[in-house]
Amino acid sequence: MEAAAMTSVMEEPIEGRQYEDQLRVMLLPDDTSSSGSEGLYLFIGLNILCFFRKTSDMLIEETTSLVEDGHAWRKYGQKMVLNAKHPRNYYRCTHKFDQGCQATKQVERM
DNA sequence: CTGATTTGACCTCT
DNA sequence: AGAGGTCAAATCAG
């Protein structure tokens, strides 16, 4: 992740912005939020990059989270999490084993 | 038929 | 014991 590509850093996504030029959103390791449902997200767009902290009442929209990211995701679980209005879906790589892909991701949606 | 999804049960951690 | 994460059998879809 080259820092030279960074054109914008902000605390929160721009409200109402259409993120149709997005490439991906990834949840970063964040030891400051090891407890609770919050997480630090990195948003990478064609000409924008920002970090934002997800709060419990913030929705990571489906179009944002399920954007094509080069992996084939297979859903393996869904849970209702406490203090969240919406269920959380769990995904992992389709070829987790024969390609050594250990990636998993969690998506909250409406 | 084969691979993906659904969904309740099960496991781990606190 | 409760909450979050994963498993796996049943079911669905191509």
From TrEMBL:
InterPro entries: WRKY_dom (IPR003657), WRKY_dom_sf (IPR036576), WRKY_plant (IPR044810). SUPFAM superfamilies: WRKY DNA-binding domain. GO terms for cellular component: nucleus. Its main location: nucleus. The keyword Iron does not apply. Coiled coil: none annotated. Pfam families: WRKY (PF03106). Keywords: DNA-binding, Nucleus, Transcription, Transcription regulation. Residues 62-110 form the WRKY domain. It is found in: Nucleus. It comes from the Eukaryota. GO terms for molecular function: DNA-binding transcription factor activity; transcription cis-regulatory region binding. PANTHER family: WRKY TRANSCRIPTION FACTOR 19-RELATED, WRKY TRANSCRIPTION FACTOR 30-RELATED-RELATED. This is WRKY transcription factor. It comes from Dorcoceras hygrometricum.
